[in-house]
Specification:
Elements: H1 8-11, H2 14-23, E1 30-34, H3 38-50, H4 54-58, E2 64-68, E3 72-75, E4 78-85, E5 92-99, E6 102-108, H5 114-120, E7 125-129, H6 142-151, E8 156-160
Parallel strand pairs: 1-2, 6-7, 7-8
Antiparallel strand pairs: 3-4, 4-5, 5-6
Length: 179
């Protein structure tokens, strides 16, 4: 699982997901790849979620590996590249993940700046945010997302992180994509 940054709207859904993994999907290892401090941040989140039961009761049942994203790396048999994107004070990681001969670009939250163009350039599929219309501080607007898609006509775009209305190419709940 690739994490772009540690804002609550990108991490607070992890505790119920982990709970499911512990009780239902227990035998499989889950690898989290993310910014510097990923293990400490997520362990703190899980400790807040389960209190004193996290370490002695839950953690022994949870097969997990934490990987600090490098500029280039491999995880679970997949090659990836990390591109630092502009978002808030600390920024966010964008990832280019290689699936055979296909490349998936994933931005998480970002402003429409040059590193985002580098992230999606030549990708087969790009999952990027399109928060809403007009000025969407520290995020990408529908207008900027549409312009990005026009600059990269060979890339299939899927827009997520919509907080208001919709835009063409927006992801649907429970949508399955084939790359």
């Amino acid at each position: 699982m690739f994490l772009t940054h540690f804002h609550g709207d990108h991490t607070l859904g992890l505790p119920p997901f982990v709970l499911h993994r512990i009780f239902v999907d227990k035998p499989r290892l889950l690898t989290f790849v993310g910014p510097e401090g990923i293990e400490e941040r997520l362990q703190s989140l899980f400790e807040v979620s389960w209190g004193i039961d996290w370490k002695p009761v839950m953690l022994p049942r949870f097969k997990v590996k934490y990987v600090t994203a490098r500029p280039r790396g491999q995880v679970a048999g997949f090659q990836y590249q990390t591109i630092k994107l502009d978002h808030g004070t600390a920024g966010a990681n964008g990832y280019r993940i290689q699936f055979g001969d296909k490349v998936l670009a994933y931005s998480g939250d970002t402003e429409p700046t040059a590193p985002l163009d580098r992230l999606v350039d030549g990708a087969d599929v790009a999952i990027v945010e399109a928060t809403g219309p007009g000025d969407v501080f520290s995020h990408m607007s529908w207008e900027a997302a549409t312009a990005l898609r026009k600059r990269h006509p060979g890339t299939r775009f899927v827009f997520n992180h919509l907080y208001s209305g919709t835009v063409g190419g927006a992801a649907k709940d429970f949508q399955v994509l084939e790359i």
